[in-house]
Design a protein that fits this description.
Chain lengths: 44, 251, 167
Protein backbone atom coordinates (compact mmCIF):
# COMPACT_ATOMS: atom_id res chain seq x y z
CA UNK A 1 0.00 0.00 0.00
CA UNK A 2 1.39 3.43 -0.97
CA UNK A 3 1.16 6.47 1.28
CA UNK A 4 0.43 4.30 4.33
CA UNK A 5 0.99 7.11 6.81
CA UNK A 6 -1.59 9.35 5.12
CA UNK A 7 -4.19 6.61 4.80
CA UNK A 8 -3.79 5.07 8.26
CA UNK A 9 -3.47 8.60 9.64
CA UNK A 10 -6.85 9.52 8.15
CA UNK A 11 -8.53 6.53 9.79
CA UNK A 12 -6.75 7.11 13.11
CA UNK A 13 -7.65 10.82 13.22
CA UNK A 14 -11.30 9.93 12.55
CA UNK A 15 -11.56 7.25 15.21
CA UNK A 16 -9.56 9.21 17.80
CA UNK A 17 -11.70 12.33 17.32
CA UNK A 18 -14.95 10.38 17.63
CA UNK A 19 -13.56 8.46 20.61
CA UNK A 20 -12.49 11.67 22.37
CA UNK A 21 -15.92 13.22 21.82
CA UNK A 22 -17.67 10.10 23.18
CA UNK A 23 -15.31 9.87 26.15
CA UNK A 24 -15.91 13.51 27.10
CA UNK A 25 -19.65 13.00 26.68
CA UNK A 26 -19.69 9.97 28.99
CA UNK A 27 -17.59 11.75 31.61
CA UNK A 28 -20.07 14.62 31.60
CA UNK A 29 -22.95 12.16 31.86
CA UNK A 30 -21.41 10.56 34.94
CA UNK A 31 -20.65 13.94 36.48
CA UNK A 32 -24.20 15.22 36.01
CA UNK A 33 -25.92 11.94 36.79
CA UNK A 34 -25.36 11.95 40.53
CA UNK A 35 -27.00 15.38 40.90
CA UNK A 36 -30.18 14.51 39.00
CA UNK A 37 -33.20 12.58 40.24
CA UNK A 38 -34.20 9.44 38.35
CA UNK A 39 -37.53 11.11 37.48
CA UNK A 40 -35.61 13.62 35.34
CA UNK A 41 -34.20 10.82 33.17
CA UNK A 42 -37.07 9.89 30.88
CA UNK A 43 -35.06 7.14 29.13
CA UNK A 44 -34.78 5.18 32.40
CA UNK B 1 -20.56 11.13 45.49
CA UNK B 2 -19.56 9.03 42.49
CA UNK B 3 -15.93 9.17 41.49
CA UNK B 4 -15.35 10.01 37.83
CA UNK B 5 -13.30 7.36 36.09
CA UNK B 6 -10.80 8.61 33.51
CA UNK B 7 -12.03 6.08 30.92
CA UNK B 8 -15.70 5.38 31.61
CA UNK B 9 -17.09 2.29 29.98
CA UNK B 10 -19.81 2.82 27.37
CA UNK B 11 -21.54 -0.17 28.93
CA UNK B 12 -22.16 1.66 32.19
CA UNK B 13 -22.91 5.22 31.11
CA UNK B 14 -26.00 6.72 32.77
CA UNK B 15 -27.30 7.75 29.34
CA UNK B 16 -27.31 4.17 28.09
CA UNK B 17 -30.22 1.78 27.68
CA UNK B 18 -30.43 -1.77 26.41
CA UNK B 19 -31.36 -0.45 22.95
CA UNK B 20 -28.52 2.10 22.83
CA UNK B 21 -26.03 -0.56 23.93
CA UNK B 22 -27.27 -2.82 21.13
CA UNK B 23 -26.94 0.00 18.61
CA UNK B 24 -23.46 0.79 19.95
CA UNK B 25 -22.38 -2.81 19.44
CA UNK B 26 -23.70 -2.83 15.86
CA UNK B 27 -21.82 0.41 15.16
CA UNK B 28 -18.59 -0.94 16.65
CA UNK B 29 -18.74 -4.14 14.61
CA UNK B 30 -19.68 -2.15 11.50
CA UNK B 31 -16.67 0.13 11.99
CA UNK B 32 -14.35 -2.86 12.33
CA UNK B 33 -15.74 -4.37 9.11
CA UNK B 34 -15.57 -1.02 7.30
CA UNK B 35 -11.93 -0.60 8.30
CA UNK B 36 -11.13 -4.12 7.06
CA UNK B 37 -12.95 -3.52 3.77
CA UNK B 38 -11.50 -0.05 3.30
CA UNK B 39 -7.90 -0.88 4.14
CA UNK B 40 -7.48 -4.50 3.02
CA UNK B 41 -10.26 -6.05 0.95
CA UNK B 42 -11.01 -3.40 -1.67
CA UNK B 43 -8.80 -3.00 -4.72
CA UNK B 44 -6.75 0.05 -5.49
CA UNK B 45 -8.05 2.65 -7.92
CA UNK B 46 -6.56 2.66 -11.39
CA UNK B 47 -5.47 6.30 -11.12
CA UNK B 48 -5.31 7.04 -7.40
CA UNK B 49 -3.89 3.73 -6.18
CA UNK B 50 -4.23 3.28 -2.41
CA UNK B 51 -5.32 6.85 -1.87
CA UNK B 52 -8.87 5.82 -2.76
CA UNK B 53 -9.02 4.13 0.69
CA UNK B 54 -9.36 7.55 2.32
CA UNK B 55 -12.61 8.03 0.42
CA UNK B 56 -14.32 5.33 2.53
CA UNK B 57 -14.15 7.62 5.56
CA UNK B 58 -14.06 11.02 3.85
CA UNK B 59 -17.39 10.64 2.05
CA UNK B 60 -19.31 9.16 5.04
CA UNK B 61 -18.04 11.92 7.36
CA UNK B 62 -19.19 14.57 4.88
CA UNK B 63 -22.56 12.82 4.49
CA UNK B 64 -23.06 12.61 8.28
CA UNK B 65 -22.20 16.30 8.64
CA UNK B 66 -24.87 17.23 6.06
CA UNK B 67 -27.36 14.88 7.74
CA UNK B 68 -26.56 16.29 11.19
CA UNK B 69 -27.13 19.87 10.05
CA UNK B 70 -30.41 18.91 8.39
CA UNK B 71 -31.54 17.16 11.59
CA UNK B 72 -30.58 20.31 13.52
CA UNK B 73 -32.77 22.41 11.24
CA UNK B 74 -35.72 19.98 11.37
CA UNK B 75 -35.54 19.68 15.17
CA UNK B 76 -35.30 23.47 15.48
CA UNK B 77 -38.37 23.86 13.27
CA UNK B 78 -40.23 21.31 15.41
CA UNK B 79 -39.34 23.29 18.53
CA UNK B 80 -40.35 26.62 17.03
CA UNK B 81 -43.58 25.53 15.35
CA UNK B 82 -44.58 22.65 17.63
CA UNK B 83 -47.52 23.26 19.97
CA UNK B 84 -45.57 22.19 23.06
CA UNK B 85 -42.30 24.07 22.23
CA UNK B 86 -40.62 20.99 23.65
CA UNK B 87 -37.01 21.58 24.68
CA UNK B 88 -36.28 17.98 23.74
CA UNK B 89 -36.27 19.12 20.10
CA UNK B 90 -33.88 21.94 20.97
CA UNK B 91 -31.54 19.50 22.69
CA UNK B 92 -31.68 17.14 19.70
CA UNK B 93 -30.81 20.14 17.50
CA UNK B 94 -27.85 21.06 19.72
CA UNK B 95 -26.61 17.48 20.01
CA UNK B 96 -26.87 16.94 16.26
CA UNK B 97 -24.98 20.17 15.51
CA UNK B 98 -22.16 19.18 17.87
CA UNK B 99 -21.80 15.81 16.16
CA UNK B 100 -22.08 17.49 12.75
CA UNK B 101 -19.25 19.90 13.54
CA UNK B 102 -17.02 16.99 14.58
CA UNK B 103 -17.73 15.14 11.32
CA UNK B 104 -17.44 18.23 9.15
CA UNK B 105 -14.02 18.88 10.69
CA UNK B 106 -13.04 15.27 10.04
CA UNK B 107 -14.26 15.54 6.48
CA UNK B 108 -12.02 18.59 5.97
CA UNK B 109 -9.01 16.80 7.49
CA UNK B 110 -9.43 13.53 5.56
CA UNK B 111 -10.22 15.48 2.39
CA UNK B 112 -7.07 17.50 2.88
CA UNK B 113 -4.98 14.32 3.21
CA UNK B 114 -6.62 12.92 0.07
CA UNK B 115 -6.00 16.21 -1.74
CA UNK B 116 -2.30 16.17 -0.89
CA UNK B 117 -1.92 12.73 -2.45
CA UNK B 118 -4.18 13.26 -5.46
CA UNK B 119 -4.11 16.95 -6.33
CA UNK B 120 -0.66 17.53 -4.89
CA UNK B 121 -1.83 20.11 -2.34
CA UNK B 122 -3.48 20.01 1.10
CA UNK B 123 -5.66 23.03 0.49
CA UNK B 124 -6.88 25.37 -2.22
CA UNK B 125 -9.54 28.04 -2.05
CA UNK B 126 -11.69 26.34 -4.67
CA UNK B 127 -15.52 26.51 -4.55
CA UNK B 128 -16.14 23.17 -2.77
CA UNK B 129 -13.43 23.61 -0.16
CA UNK B 130 -14.28 27.24 0.49
CA UNK B 131 -18.03 26.66 0.89
CA UNK B 132 -17.35 23.61 3.08
CA UNK B 133 -15.11 25.54 5.46
CA UNK B 134 -17.75 28.28 5.55
CA UNK B 135 -20.39 25.70 6.51
CA UNK B 136 -18.08 24.39 9.24
CA UNK B 137 -17.47 27.88 10.61
CA UNK B 138 -21.20 28.65 10.51
CA UNK B 139 -22.02 25.69 12.75
CA UNK B 140 -19.18 26.45 15.15
CA UNK B 141 -20.91 29.84 15.36
CA UNK B 142 -24.24 28.10 15.95
CA UNK B 143 -22.74 26.27 18.93
CA UNK B 144 -21.34 29.55 20.26
CA UNK B 145 -24.80 31.12 19.94
CA UNK B 146 -26.27 28.24 21.94
CA UNK B 147 -23.77 28.99 24.71
CA UNK B 148 -24.47 32.73 24.97
CA UNK B 149 -26.58 32.38 28.11
CA UNK B 150 -30.20 33.15 28.96
CA UNK B 151 -33.04 30.72 29.60
CA UNK B 152 -33.38 27.40 27.80
CA UNK B 153 -36.27 28.83 25.77
CA UNK B 154 -34.20 31.85 24.74
CA UNK B 155 -31.39 29.53 23.72
CA UNK B 156 -33.79 27.38 21.70
CA UNK B 157 -35.37 30.32 19.83
CA UNK B 158 -32.09 32.12 19.16
CA UNK B 159 -30.23 29.05 17.93
CA UNK B 160 -33.31 27.80 16.04
CA UNK B 161 -33.26 30.88 13.81
CA UNK B 162 -29.54 30.36 13.10
CA UNK B 163 -30.12 26.66 12.34
CA UNK B 164 -32.92 27.39 9.88
CA UNK B 165 -30.75 29.91 8.02
CA UNK B 166 -27.52 27.90 8.14
CA UNK B 167 -29.05 24.77 6.61
CA UNK B 168 -29.56 26.72 3.37
CA UNK B 169 -25.80 26.53 2.84
CA UNK B 170 -25.89 22.76 2.32
CA UNK B 171 -27.23 22.80 -1.28
CA UNK B 172 -24.71 25.54 -2.04
CA UNK B 173 -21.87 23.30 -0.80
CA UNK B 174 -23.15 20.17 -2.56
CA UNK B 175 -23.74 21.84 -5.91
CA UNK B 176 -20.70 24.14 -5.74
CA UNK B 177 -18.83 21.74 -8.05
CA UNK B 178 -21.60 22.11 -10.64
CA UNK B 179 -22.26 25.83 -10.20
CA UNK B 180 -18.62 26.92 -10.40
CA UNK B 181 -15.34 25.62 -11.83
CA UNK B 182 -13.85 23.54 -9.08
CA UNK B 183 -10.69 21.55 -8.45
CA UNK B 184 -12.87 19.10 -6.51
CA UNK B 185 -14.49 16.38 -8.62
CA UNK B 186 -18.24 16.16 -9.11
CA UNK B 187 -20.34 13.64 -7.19
CA UNK B 188 -19.79 9.95 -7.99
CA UNK B 189 -23.11 8.73 -6.58
CA UNK B 190 -25.53 11.63 -6.14
CA UNK B 191 -25.21 12.84 -9.73
CA UNK B 192 -28.09 14.82 -11.21
CA UNK B 193 -28.39 12.22 -14.06
CA UNK B 194 -28.50 9.28 -11.59
CA UNK B 195 -25.31 7.67 -12.93
CA UNK B 196 -22.87 5.93 -10.57
CA UNK B 197 -19.22 6.03 -11.65
CA UNK B 198 -17.73 3.54 -9.21
CA UNK B 199 -16.86 -0.16 -9.34
CA UNK B 200 -18.65 -2.94 -7.39
CA UNK B 201 -16.82 -3.56 -4.08
CA UNK B 202 -15.68 0.06 -3.96
CA UNK B 203 -19.28 1.19 -4.25
CA UNK B 204 -20.45 -1.37 -1.67
CA UNK B 205 -17.74 -0.28 0.80
CA UNK B 206 -18.60 3.36 0.32
CA UNK B 207 -22.33 2.76 0.84
CA UNK B 208 -21.59 0.48 3.80
CA UNK B 209 -19.45 3.26 5.28
CA UNK B 210 -22.28 5.74 4.81
CA UNK B 211 -24.69 3.34 6.58
CA UNK B 212 -22.34 2.63 9.51
CA UNK B 213 -21.48 6.30 10.00
CA UNK B 214 -25.19 7.13 9.91
CA UNK B 215 -25.80 4.64 12.72
CA UNK B 216 -22.83 6.09 14.61
CA UNK B 217 -24.40 9.53 14.21
CA UNK B 218 -27.72 8.25 15.61
CA UNK B 219 -25.95 6.63 18.57
CA UNK B 220 -23.91 9.76 19.35
CA UNK B 221 -26.90 12.11 19.11
CA UNK B 222 -28.98 9.79 21.28
CA UNK B 223 -26.40 9.92 24.07
CA UNK B 224 -25.51 13.57 23.60
CA UNK B 225 -29.09 14.81 23.81
CA UNK B 226 -29.49 12.81 27.03
CA UNK B 227 -26.36 14.46 28.46
CA UNK B 228 -27.84 17.84 27.47
CA UNK B 229 -31.06 16.83 29.24
CA UNK B 230 -29.04 16.19 32.41
CA UNK B 231 -27.19 19.51 32.00
CA UNK B 232 -30.47 21.40 31.60
CA UNK B 233 -31.92 19.61 34.63
CA UNK B 234 -28.93 20.77 36.66
CA UNK B 235 -29.51 24.35 35.50
CA UNK B 236 -33.20 24.04 36.43
CA UNK B 237 -32.14 22.57 39.77
CA UNK B 238 -30.03 25.67 40.39
CA UNK B 239 -33.09 27.86 39.80
CA UNK B 240 -35.19 25.67 42.09
CA UNK B 241 -32.51 25.98 44.81
CA UNK B 242 -32.58 29.79 44.51
CA UNK B 243 -36.38 29.80 44.80
CA UNK B 244 -36.18 27.55 47.85
CA UNK B 245 -33.75 29.98 49.48
CA UNK B 246 -36.26 32.83 48.98
CA UNK B 247 -39.05 30.68 50.40
CA UNK B 248 -36.90 30.00 53.44
CA UNK B 249 -36.30 33.76 53.86
CA UNK B 250 -40.08 34.42 53.83
CA UNK B 251 -40.62 31.79 56.48
CA UNK C 1 -45.86 23.60 44.82
CA UNK C 2 -46.37 23.62 48.60
CA UNK C 3 -45.80 27.35 49.14
CA UNK C 4 -47.56 30.28 47.51
CA UNK C 5 -44.77 31.81 45.43
CA UNK C 6 -46.83 34.93 44.71
CA UNK C 7 -45.67 36.22 48.06
CA UNK C 8 -42.02 35.70 47.26
CA UNK C 9 -39.69 38.62 46.56
CA UNK C 10 -38.21 37.60 43.21
CA UNK C 11 -36.42 40.88 42.52
CA UNK C 12 -32.70 40.49 41.79
CA UNK C 13 -30.37 40.89 44.74
CA UNK C 14 -28.32 44.12 44.67
CA UNK C 15 -25.15 42.29 45.59
CA UNK C 16 -24.25 39.18 43.73
CA UNK C 17 -21.75 36.85 45.35
CA UNK C 18 -18.37 37.49 43.76
CA UNK C 19 -17.71 33.91 42.67
CA UNK C 20 -21.13 33.59 41.04
CA UNK C 21 -20.75 36.92 39.26
CA UNK C 22 -17.37 36.04 37.80
CA UNK C 23 -18.63 32.66 36.66
CA UNK C 24 -21.67 34.04 34.89
CA UNK C 25 -19.54 36.69 33.15
CA UNK C 26 -17.09 34.02 32.05
CA UNK C 27 -19.91 31.95 30.63
CA UNK C 28 -21.10 34.86 28.49
CA UNK C 29 -17.77 36.29 27.38
CA UNK C 30 -16.18 33.13 26.08
CA UNK C 31 -18.85 32.26 23.50
CA UNK C 32 -19.25 35.96 22.63
CA UNK C 33 -15.51 36.24 21.88
CA UNK C 34 -15.66 32.99 19.96
CA UNK C 35 -18.55 34.39 17.95
CA UNK C 36 -16.58 37.53 17.08
CA UNK C 37 -13.61 35.38 15.99
CA UNK C 38 -15.95 33.25 13.89
CA UNK C 39 -17.47 36.31 12.22
CA UNK C 40 -14.00 37.61 11.34
CA UNK C 41 -12.91 34.22 9.99
CA UNK C 42 -16.21 33.90 8.14
CA UNK C 43 -15.48 37.27 6.50
CA UNK C 44 -12.06 36.00 5.40
CA UNK C 45 -13.66 32.87 3.91
CA UNK C 46 -16.28 34.91 2.02
CA UNK C 47 -13.52 37.19 0.69
CA UNK C 48 -11.56 34.15 -0.47
CA UNK C 49 -14.70 32.78 -2.08
CA UNK C 50 -15.37 35.97 -4.01
CA UNK C 51 -11.75 36.58 -4.99
CA UNK C 52 -10.53 33.06 -5.68
CA UNK C 53 -13.18 30.36 -5.70
CA UNK C 54 -15.85 31.55 -8.13
CA UNK C 55 -13.60 31.45 -11.21
CA UNK C 56 -11.04 28.96 -10.00
CA UNK C 57 -9.40 28.52 -13.41
CA UNK C 58 -9.39 29.53 -17.06
CA UNK C 59 -9.38 26.80 -19.70
CA UNK C 60 -6.50 26.70 -22.18
CA UNK C 61 -8.68 28.02 -25.02
CA UNK C 62 -9.79 31.01 -22.93
CA UNK C 63 -6.36 32.62 -22.43
CA UNK C 64 -6.46 36.10 -23.90
CA UNK C 65 -10.09 35.61 -24.90
CA UNK C 66 -12.18 35.50 -21.77
CA UNK C 67 -12.37 38.37 -19.29
CA UNK C 68 -10.09 37.64 -16.34
CA UNK C 69 -7.93 35.29 -18.44
CA UNK C 70 -5.61 37.91 -19.93
CA UNK C 71 -2.15 36.58 -20.74
CA UNK C 72 -0.51 39.49 -18.93
CA UNK C 73 -1.67 38.46 -15.47
CA UNK C 74 -1.04 35.51 -13.17
CA UNK C 75 -3.38 32.69 -14.18
CA UNK C 76 -4.67 29.28 -13.18
CA UNK C 77 -5.08 27.30 -16.39
CA UNK C 78 -6.90 24.01 -16.84
CA UNK C 79 -6.30 21.42 -19.54
CA UNK C 80 -5.44 17.76 -20.08
CA UNK C 81 -1.74 16.79 -20.29
CA UNK C 82 -1.08 15.78 -23.90
CA UNK C 83 -0.09 12.19 -24.55
CA UNK C 84 3.63 11.86 -25.37
CA UNK C 85 4.40 15.47 -24.40
CA UNK C 86 5.74 14.84 -20.90
CA UNK C 87 9.51 15.31 -20.49
CA UNK C 88 11.81 15.86 -17.51
CA UNK C 89 15.00 17.85 -18.00
CA UNK C 90 17.34 19.54 -15.49
CA UNK C 91 14.78 19.32 -12.71
CA UNK C 92 12.08 20.81 -14.95
CA UNK C 93 8.83 19.11 -15.93
CA UNK C 94 7.93 20.07 -19.50
CA UNK C 95 4.66 19.18 -21.15
CA UNK C 96 1.84 20.57 -23.22
CA UNK C 97 -1.81 20.61 -22.21
CA UNK C 98 -4.90 21.02 -24.32
CA UNK C 99 -8.51 21.99 -24.05
CA UNK C 100 -11.01 22.33 -26.90
CA UNK C 101 -8.24 21.81 -29.51
CA UNK C 102 -6.11 24.66 -28.14
CA UNK C 103 -2.68 23.71 -26.80
CA UNK C 104 -0.41 25.39 -24.28
CA UNK C 105 3.27 24.61 -23.60
CA UNK C 106 4.01 24.42 -19.87
CA UNK C 107 7.27 24.42 -17.90
CA UNK C 108 7.18 23.55 -14.24
CA UNK C 109 10.21 23.81 -12.00
CA UNK C 110 10.16 20.51 -10.11
CA UNK C 111 8.04 17.38 -9.85
CA UNK C 112 4.30 18.17 -9.81
CA UNK C 113 3.40 15.40 -7.31
CA UNK C 114 -0.11 14.07 -6.75
CA UNK C 115 -1.21 11.61 -9.44
CA UNK C 116 0.26 13.76 -12.22
CA UNK C 117 0.58 11.82 -15.49
CA UNK C 118 -0.16 12.11 -19.17
CA UNK C 119 -3.77 12.48 -20.26
CA UNK C 120 -4.94 13.65 -16.83
CA UNK C 121 -6.57 17.09 -16.40
CA UNK C 122 -4.49 19.54 -14.39
CA UNK C 123 -4.67 23.11 -13.17
CA UNK C 124 -1.37 24.96 -13.60
CA UNK C 125 -0.66 28.20 -11.70
CA UNK C 126 1.73 30.69 -13.27
CA UNK C 127 2.35 33.27 -15.98
CA UNK C 128 2.70 33.40 -19.76
CA UNK C 129 6.27 34.30 -20.80
CA UNK C 130 7.14 34.34 -24.53
CA UNK C 131 4.30 31.99 -25.41
CA UNK C 132 5.23 29.43 -22.73
CA UNK C 133 3.34 29.05 -19.46
CA UNK C 134 5.85 29.12 -16.59
CA UNK C 135 4.17 27.34 -13.73
CA UNK C 136 5.09 27.31 -10.05
CA UNK C 137 2.25 25.05 -8.92
CA UNK C 138 0.38 22.21 -10.53
CA UNK C 139 -2.75 20.56 -9.18
CA UNK C 140 -4.15 17.34 -10.58
CA UNK C 141 -7.87 17.46 -11.23
CA UNK C 142 -9.20 13.98 -10.50
CA UNK C 143 -12.40 12.82 -12.18
CA UNK C 144 -15.39 11.42 -10.30
CA UNK C 145 -14.86 7.92 -11.75
CA UNK C 146 -13.35 5.17 -9.58
CA UNK C 147 -12.20 1.88 -11.12
CA UNK C 148 -10.36 -1.04 -9.61
CA UNK C 149 -6.78 -1.60 -10.65
CA UNK C 150 -6.23 -4.72 -12.72
CA UNK C 151 -4.36 -5.33 -15.96
CA UNK C 152 -7.41 -5.19 -18.23
CA UNK C 153 -8.62 -2.06 -16.58
CA UNK C 154 -5.23 -0.35 -16.70
CA UNK C 155 -5.01 -0.96 -20.44
CA UNK C 156 -8.53 0.30 -20.98
CA UNK C 157 -8.02 3.25 -18.65
CA UNK C 158 -4.80 4.24 -20.39
CA UNK C 159 -6.50 3.98 -23.74
CA UNK C 160 -9.49 5.94 -22.51
CA UNK C 161 -7.58 8.52 -20.52
CA UNK C 162 -6.61 10.58 -23.54
CA UNK C 163 -10.20 10.73 -24.67
CA UNK C 164 -11.39 12.15 -21.40
CA UNK C 165 -14.60 14.11 -21.57
CA UNK C 166 -14.09 17.85 -21.80
CA UNK C 167 -14.38 19.37 -18.33
Amino acid sequence: MDHVSFIIGGYVVTFVAVGAFVLRMFRQARKFNSAIAESDKPWR
Amino acid sequence: MNSIQPFPSPLTTPTGTRASRGLGLVVFLGMVLLTMLGLFFTDEDVVQGSTVRLMYIHVPTAWVAYLAFIVTAVASAMYMWGKQHSLTFDRIAGASAEVGVIFMGLSLVTGSLWGRLTWGTYWQWDPRLTTTVFLFVTYVGYLAVRDLGGSHQQRAKRSGVVALLAVLEIPLVHFSVVLWRSLHQEASILQPNGNVTMDGLMLFTLLFGVAVFTLLFAWMVLHRQRVLTLADAIDDGGLETALQERRNEVN
Amino acid sequence: MALNDDALDLSPRETVPAAQSVRSQKRRWKPALLLVAILIFGGVVVTKFLSSAIDYYCNVDEIGVRSGCEGTRRLRVQGAVDEGSLKKAAGMTIFSMSFNDDTLDVRYDGDPGGVFQECIPVVAHGRMVDGVFLSDRIEVKHSNAYSTENKDRIDKAEAAACSLPKL
